[in-house]
Every structure is written in C-alpha cells, then in structure tokens.
Amino acid sequence: MEPEKEEFRSQVKLIYRYLVMTLVLIAAVFIGVVTILIPKEINSEYQEIVTNEVNIDPSEIVDGIHIPTGFQEGDGLPIVIEACTACHSAKLVTQNRATREGWIGMIRWMQQTQNLWDLGEDEEAIVKYLATYYAPEQKGRREILTNIEWYDLDK
Amino acid sequence: MKRRNFLKKASLGSMATIMGIDIVHAAAIPKGYIPLLFQDNDPYKLFGKDEEMTLLNDKPWNMEAKAHLLDDKVTPSKYMFIRNNGLVPKNIDVSKWTIVFDGESIKTPKTYTLSELKSKFKHYTYQLTLECGGNGRSEFNPPAKGNQWTVGAVSCANWTGVRLRDVLNDVGVKEDAVYIGYYGADLHLSQDPNKDAISRGVPMSKALMDETLLAFQMNGEDIPLAHGYPLRLVAGGWPASASGKWINRISIRNIVHDGVKMTGTAYRVPCKPVAPGEKVTDEDMCIIESMPVKSLITYPKSGAVLKNKRSLEIRGHAWAGELAVSKVAYSIDFGASWIDCKLEKATNRLAWQHFSATVNFPKEGYYEIWVRATDSNGLHQPMLLPGWNPKGYLNNACHRIAVKVS
Fold first, then answer.
1. Are residues B141 and B194 in the same domain?
2. Which chain B residues are closer than 8 Å to A46 by Cβ?
C-alpha cells in the first residue's frame, strides 16, 4: 500500500475513534441528565409552583402581617418565604416560638432528617428574622384564660 | 423564579441546546400531578370538616377541634382532628389495595387484598379513643416545637375491622417477634419516594389485643380519606400516631421498630424527669406508650354568661389510655374544693367515658369550672402543666371553662 493511503487510513481511523468516543460521551451525559436531572426537576417543579414569589407586594402587608403567608413583616422576610414554605405551610413556622439556638436546632433537624438543603449565607438572615419575630414568650406553669368570647347562655 | 430551579433549568436547557434537542418545557409536570396551587385547597370542603375546626397547618394538613365541638358521645368525622405527617395519597384504587406482612419475625411474607381481609376474618367494632401525643403542646413553657395543638386533637369514633391478632395468626409469626411497624401510602413532604412520612408501630402485646384493629370503616362508613381510607391500623389509648393511616405494609420486627418517627425525639419523652428547657440526648428519650388520664368539658362552650339562674349543667368525656377512668370531679374555686361528677362506664375498653354534673354558683361573679379525672390506678390529672419535655407531649393538665353569673 502507498504510504499516503496508509496515512489517510490511519487518520480516518483516528477521526472515527474520536467520533465514537464523543458519541459515547454525549450518550453518557444524556443518560446522566435523564436519570439524575429530570426526576429531580419534576419533583422540584411541584415546589416551585407552590413556593411564593420572592417579591413582596406592599399591599399584601396588613397590620404588619404578610397576608398570603401569615408571616410578620420584617427584615429577611423574602428569604424566609423562599426557604421555609417550599415543603410545608408557613403556618408550621408561625405557630412555633424559639430562641436563636432553638431555631438553629430546628433547621439542623430538618437538614438531617427532612431533606432541607444547606441555606448558605441566607441562614444568618433567616435565623435572625425567626429569633426576632418568633421569640418565646414567658407563660409560666399555667396561663390565665384569655380571649374569652362571652355569650348569653339563657337565650 | 427561584435561583435554585433557575440554575437546574439553565443546565438542562443548555444541555438540550448542545444536543440539538428542543425542550420547550424542560421541567414539564408529569400527567396526573395537579400542582397544589390549582387543587381544591379548602380542607373544610376537601375533608368534610366543620368550619369551626381550627386549621393549624395546610401542608401537611393538621386540624383540630375546639372543646365544645367534641360534645357528641361518638365523634363524627366533621369534628375529628387531622394529624398528617406527609401528603394524603392520591388516586386510591381500593380494588387493587393490598397489605403485605413481612419483617424478620415472619415465617413467610404474605400479602392480602383488602377484600380478602374483609372476607377471611371476623369483623369487630369498638369505640376507640385516639389522641395525638402532642395534644396540649401549645401550653408548654419554654415552648415545644411542632404543631401547637390546644385541646382538640382527640376523638372517639367507632372503628370496624378485623383483629390484627387474627391476621397475624394466619400469617405466622416467629417466637422472637418484638414489635410491629406499619407503612402507609402517604408521601413524604419532600416528595422523595424513598423517604417515609411516618412509620411507627406498637409492641407485640399491644398488637395482639382484642381492640387492635385493621379497620376499614369509621362510624359505619368507609374511613374518610383524611383518616386513612381504605385501611387503618387502630390502636386505641396510645398516641394516635401508632394508628397508621393508608396502611399497605406491616413488618413484624425482632427489634423495637426503627421506622420514621420511632427514633430520636419523636413521640418520646425523657426517661427521667428534666427541668424545663433542659437538653436531653436521644438515648435518654423513651417511647410513649399508653396516654395519661385526661378529660374535656364539651358543654357548655367556655364564655357562658348566666343571667337568670345560678345553676348550670356541664358535661364532657374522660379517658385514661389503657386504663379506665374511676372518677371525675369539678371545682369552681381553683381546686380548693372538688365535687364528684356523674360518670358513665365505657362502651368498651379504650373508649372515653362521659361525665356530667349540675354546678351551683353561690353568688354572682366570674368563675372557672375546672374538671379533673382520676384513672383506675388513682392518678389525677394535674392542674398545672405536667413535666416539661422537649417535644411537648402528654399535657394532661385539667381543662377549664370560664363562666359569668350576673
């Protein structure tokens, strides 16, 4: 065989090999995308629709309460809405009272057991908000009865 | 759009572009999924609940009654509290519903269809008290985390089903069985199919009791969706979380069941008493079994003003977990004196008992009627909060209502 033909053949082989490798790579990436990314994407789609928009419309704040979520208005509210209403309702947050340490404890517990993600630099703002607006109140061993709705029983 | 999703979408989108595929909606919602926002999201309509019920949480659904709503002797569905841990299962096909029995202590795993369960075993009906372990949590100080139940996370309905014992006899259980653990069809809140929302259980001694049922009816009808349709494990007198909903699997374990919410701090209290707010390690937390003695004044509603009379009929229910209630008394002077109420016997073991009394007021003024039940071991309800615990369980402090006599 002539040398030029030989060289041409080996070059074709090389290009062919590269092509196959590239195709295999693309296929692997594609499979990876399909198996890893898409199911997650489907799952998070659910949350995304449920999650509130981060922009807060001032008209939605009435008497210091953000009406759509029930959260108190305050520094860090948009971040809290974003991070804390994806899985459960804001009601689960607003019912609770805790110190800074207590709130961090709940976040760690959700991270360890409930798939809550790393909140990164947002964590500080979230904890600050929670510890400020949802701090414990002293209740003693038994509270007095409050908010009694009086009604006439004889009627 | 949220950053996180945007990033994911961007990567998927650019991947698609590189590969020359046009994905318009990279994250299309699969068929059959209805975004929560577009669902009929009114739980009162969705679950047929009375509008006076209090909604504590809408994801997952948690709803409680008020004391005066629980006046019926047998709790109707509309006044029954909901404590969900995950998402209510969708598209339930009863004709295909099965329950698997497996676990280390089973001779051979066995599956029954719902209709096999119904036709093969004898049916029993019991009225059973189910109270959330966290009922009354809102009163603890320092506050305990979780849903802030007040007084209404308790019910006593009629449950019809087959005895778990009869089924276990048919399945064949090994000598070394210690515990049963249930699994249900509810999805974890994160939608991760590999995570259970809750998987609790009871020791064999409780599993084998006459009243422990695999129930398919509540108050003579199919169990309502929110309460476990089509099959629920019912273990009365224990924290209601032991009564798993939407059951499709029961594992017979040779260890204490270690499913979700059996371990850590869930449904556990400190093994030895602790000071309010004290840190307790997981190893020092013990599983709650029978619920403590408790009572509720269901009539009248708190806030009654009496204008033309000095006496008042009161009534309510009392229960004591595995035990019976031996006495119920009331006080209008903050415990200085107690007067016995009339107390009825339970319809069956583990059902609440009804009490009533005629209260006479010596003069005009503001009164509180406090009611205190005593169990068959002689233990009373405390007037103050019982021992503080990190998760705020087992608050059986006396219930009270306010009355004005003018």
1. yes
2. 29, 33, 35-36, 191
